Prior knowledge:
Layout (H helix, E strand, L loop, with lengths): L5 E4 L4 H9 L3 E2 L8 E3 L2 H7 L13 E2 L6 H4 L1 H18 L28 H10 L5 E3 L11 E3 L2 H13 L6 E3 L15 H4 L3 H4 L12 E3 H12 L1 H22 L14 E6 L5 E7 L9 H18 L35 H7 L26
Helix pairs in contact: 1-11, 4-10, 9-10
Amino acid sequence: xxxxxxxxxxxxxxxxxxxxxxxxxxxxxxxxxxxxxxxxxxxxxxxxxxxxxxxxxxxxxxxxxxxxxxxxxxxxxxxxxxxxxxxxxxxxxxxxxxxxxxxxxxxxxxxxxxxxxxxxxxxxxxxxxxxxxxxxxxxxxxxxxxxxxxxxxxxxxxxxxxxxxxxxxxxxxxxxxxxxxxxxxxxxxxxxxxxxxxxxxxxxxxxxxxxxxxxxxxxxxxxxxxxxxxxxxxxxxxxxxxxxxxxxxxxxxxxxxxxxxxxxxxxxxxxxxxxxxxxxxxxxxxxxxxxxxxxxxxxxxxxxxxxxxxxxxxxxxxxxxxxxxxxxxxxxxxxxxxxxxxxxxxxxxxxxxxxxxxxxxxxxxxxxxxxxxxxxxx
Length: 378
């Protein structure tokens, strides 16, 4: 078994195991010597726990950063993005420029968000400005649509509060509801109208097991280009790329960038009727369950490309490696941010690299982990 990568996983999914086996890697148990561990977020807590954790050697890598939750917990994600905006404002960065109404020109990609119960008074003030609005209530640390509901009355918040006190890439896909969306208050409790999670939609009468309520991102792009035009569709995808880069920069100062770790995040983005994308959340462990044949192929290829980058040539990991992969191994990944090209003014370069955007009147330099960086858009 010398020279073979020894792998472990506590997520028994075929798209993972088939990728390990095709490389000739050897399966071992977590109590044996291993090189590669694809683990759940629960397990990563134990690995890096002060009480129960252990020191990883140079030939071991895992698929999560110790404090990935700085991006993948909804409340912490919003907190870090708000902090990132304020820091850019203090620096006088053009990235933080606002319009006449006070909205960010380049960083307005997160819906108005409040943390309850701490921000309850602020939420009430905002709610009363537009009392006919509908708000989404999302638990900070749950997934698969669990605990989500919609409200359009303050009394519903009070009921929730009482109940809670007594209760214990380039490739990708877009998800749809099985029931056509309507803003009607009569459908406020109909989750088949509002939540696209497969865990919910698969129980609906109109759920299609062949396509699973999903399109590939490429199909979505073709549809939007044919119905809304290439220019606005291109702008939409540029803005999605922008959201990904800026959200990662927002958490970079607080993320524990351990050399043994990598991440495969799942971004949840809602596109409104004006083709503006909004960041809803980032998933630490995007679902690897395959609900359709196309789903299985896409996720298999995703894992294949991820392993080609994280474990170059399928060899035993060495944390002293230069982790910048050559372009030919990227597969369907697309480089959005290239730190090796760091030069000049980072913020200015970022805005110039963003199609359809012009640099604001204020100059300034963007700080990113102590050095200037720039963006390349493919």
